[in-house]
Amino acid sequence: MTNPTPAWLRHLRPEVAAMDHYSAPHTVAPRARLHANECPYPWPAHVFDGIAEALRNVELERYPDISGRRLRELVATRHGCEPSQVILGNGSDEVISLLLIALAGTHQQPSHILTPSPTFVMYSHSAQVLGLQVRHVPLTRNFELDPGAMHAALKQGPALCFFARPNNPTSSLWSAEVIAELMASYPATVFVIDEAYGAYAPGTSMWQPPVRQNHVHMGTLSKVGMAALRLGYCIAPPRLATALNVVRHPYNISQTSLAIAETLLTRYEDVQRDMINKTIAGRERLAAMLATLPGAEVMPAHANLVVARFANAAVSTRLQRYLYEQRILVKDLSKYPGLAGCLRVSVGVEHELDLLQQALQQVPAELWSPSDCTYN
Ligand SMILES: Cc1ncc(COP(=O)(O)O)c(C=O)c1O
Predict the structure, then answer these.
(1) What is the Cα–Cα distance from 306 to 310, expressed in whole angstroms?
(2) Between β-strands 215-220 and 232-235, what pairing exists: parallel, antiparallel or unpaired?
(3) CA 28 to chain CA mean position, Å
(4) Would you kindly state where each structural domain of the chain is located, as residue ranges?
(5) Ligand 1-lining residues (CB < 6 angstroms)
(6) Fold of 53-267
(7) Contact 200/279 with Cβ under 8 angstroms?
(8) How does pLDDT run across 277-324, given as a tens digit for each residue?
(9) 25-43+270-368, superfamily in CATH?
(10) Closest C-alpha residue for ligand 1 atom 3
(11) Does this chain's domain 25-43+270-368 share its CATH topology with 53-267?
């Protein structure tokens, strides 16, 4: 007997019914995780003694601070802003949603948002979930911004424009001058400068107070050794920060995450810096490795990930499958507009890069050829 259509289905929002959920490849015991843009280096054992100490003081039976005040103060001190301007989210994914909900416009005049494309998919995904229109401005072939096209799109008055610097999935670092000029020209648009990968491009931050009233700085701890904590944040102009707090659920960050993040950021900064520096060094090795592959064009890399574009566009898909069979996870970007033949590889620890190197040295010759390949 076939399942009847459930009666409640008519209440499901059509935009949600039509969408796929965000998913990531899962494989049992991967040997190398080079697909999620994490900081690959684990914290050394002695750091866990400090974490254990901090966790002993967590009152599990109590709610956490309603807005993560101590961590907000820490972020504010480091960024030279008021703690009241800092909003924490369960990952910056949550911060993105808070911004979209707060600036969604009215029923009569719903907002739309703007992103260069390709970029981080959650900007569009979360906007579509809310029923907001998304306009995309294609990047140039070299993954740079197209200022003329950005101007044309901004003239349409989007509520929000997202710029990831450096960008995911391209690892490019868009011109700060171009972005600053756009921000100055369109004061009615809020520009979110997402510096999730800023640690991998030292000295390039656009957060230089005082900043414009339409500048939101977004960051995350996920890419600097704390992805498990799910902690992101933004710094917003005061009126917008108030609105974001209206939208935000109270107690949205767990006390265990807060306690661990505060400990790592205050007691083990030097360890973290070392993890980041090793990752930057790993990026050079990874880029050099990918450059030896037949037909590969390695794109400039500023985040903890490297993109190789293959002249034969089928190769990126085949390579991903081949590596997956060896339990090495990378990301084929071919299905995204503007990314035909592109493979994204996150930096791994030395051992993971060794495994990748060995696997790449043993690629079956047929994989590189235009047709007749079992990895199609
Ligand atoms: C550019 C960018 N921003 C934000 C995020 C979200 O990070 P999180 O929700 O883990 O803080 C990601 C994740 O990959 C990203 O690539």
Answers:
(1) 13
(2) antiparallel
(3) 24
(4) 25-43+270-368, 53-267
(5) 37, 91-93, 120, 164, 168, 194, 196, 220, 222, 232
(6) Aspartate Aminotransferase; domain 2 (3.40.640)
(7) yes
(8) 999 999 999 999 999 999 999 999 999 999 999 999 999 999 999 999
(9) Aspartate Aminotransferase, domain 1 (3.90.1150.10)
(10) 196
(11) no
